[in-house]
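#data-curation
PF: Archiving a pair of folding outputs for the training set. Convention for this channel: one message per protein, sequence first, structure tokens after, nothing in between. First:
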Amino acid sequence: MTYSFDTSVFIEMKFKYPKEKNKKLWQIISDRLKTHKILVSKEVKIEIHQITDSLDSWLGQFPRSIIDSTTEIQREVTKIENRYTEMIDPQSTHHSADLYVIALAKVFNAIVVSQEKIKGARRAIPYICQKEQIECKDLVTFLVEEGFNT
């Protein structure tokens, strides 16, 4: 199975499960990135770069799992934008990778992994995944299914 990881997963890992105390978790994610089982849109990498240099450097070790926005991915982003205009926050001044995470999953027939939850404004990845019939899970569910146990 292939997974499309959202920025929220990496941020959660960095701040809730630091590498020094959770080596096995980070090794599982590293192994899946090395084997391209986890894919990351270039837009997620850009978001991470804007938040934390150390996480950006770590993710930079896996360049073949960082996926550029191809014509096919961009086409899917446009379709999602047109179907779910509420996903676009006209007040926002920061770059959002959410649509690219979903589009990447569509193009690569992948499962989305995100820490977002469906919320009232419906600007959440799980909401769009549910509507588009794309499987979406959180980090803990992903880890359990990948055989991680403490």
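PF: Second:
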Amino acid sequence: MDLRVLGPIEVVDDDVTVPIGGPRQRLVLALLILNVGETVSTDRLVDDVWGDQPPDAARRTAQAYVSNLRKELEAVRPETLVARSPGYVLTADPSIIDARRFEDAVVEGRSLLGTDPSAAAATLREALALWRGAPYADLAGAMALRPEITRLEELRRNAVELRIEADLALGLHGQVIGELETLVAEHPLSERFATQLMLALYRSGRQADALRVAQRTRTTLGEELGIDPSPDLRNLEQSILDHDPALDLTPAMDSPQLHDAQSDVIRGFEIRRHIGSSHWGETYVAYQRSLEREVAVKVINPLFSRDDEFMERFHADISQMIRVAHPNIVPFYDTWRDSDGAYIVRRYFPRGSLQDAIMHGSWDSEHTLGLIAQIGSALDAVHRNGRVHGDVKPSDIMLDEHSNAYITDFALPVSVFGGSDAFLAHRRADGSVLSDDELLAEPTPQVDIRGLSATARSMIGRTDVSPRIVAVLDKGSSTDVNDQYATMA
């Protein structure tokens, strides 16, 4: 079971969303999660949910909310929520709470930064990938959660700072400039982002631009706060003026090398900005001048691209996927491998993923069913060709400007690794060993059906849906082999 608060509050068990009720009942759960392992009194629940003027029945209503939550949680994991005078306690292991895992990962990433920036970057990327939106997004107006929301948002920003610091240590200055420009615009008073951008620009041969960032930050701090920049920013500015050799850095061998640092171009694709990370590699927006279009370029993680056997099977797998012709599968434009690494070029979607769209609100039933029909048809075509996606989720579904949906990022099956023995030799991008279940489980079409059902639930959110749709999603989410849909169709 997962308790998720880095976004709208959710309880998920085996890819199935557990019902947790309306806003006030969800707030009761949020308060219990926030104080996991500690008794939360009924009086405190009443105060935090209703404020200074609770209704006469507030105490009984709070107890009813707890009773409802206990019923749902007990069905998943017994003894998760228990009564303990003078209130209730959530007895779950804190590690099932995404916010706790995020905090632990940030601590680990910070500790790795000085000795292993590659592992630090991977750890921090995994931590940041836990975020689905603003913390407690559906309860943002709850005063009782304000301090925790602020704390988590600050920790998230710190994690981004640390991850960029790791990328700079790896020589990825060219790839972080676009991201840093956005961050500096969003946080104009942050000297940390400003100094990181200055360093990235300087290492990319853009000394004048780096100095302009310093001047702009100095002006903003003076106008907004009436203060001068810190010694760190002033010292970096002087070092840039002096062309201090200490600022130079040779890219680390284990960093994914996209292109010649002098040209920002690879095989005719002009690299523009970084847009995503995963275990398998980094994704960038690039401009293909010959066809005057933007594309997405994925750089395969060196852990895999340097493995000859892996890459041979990987290209065979890509070739097989290209032969699955369907209008709602993201098309591949090119793929190659050279001495610098391995690359995949596919269509770029400026609107982003379904995950990005969901963060801005729920979808109505009609639009949800239309999108699910498109992705379901694509997955059915994949299944009929003897393949599965293996990890269907909103971030793997891209949207065009007309809200048409396209499935991407198909998981690599055991066969790609040449059997279980070879597969067992591989690890995640951060070096951690995959579990036996992860390594040896052969995904089935039912895995995709459950993933698509969970995606539909996340789109609809708490909007009213017909009992017929609920029944379809319940069956699609079922883990009971006797109650599952046999095919996507």
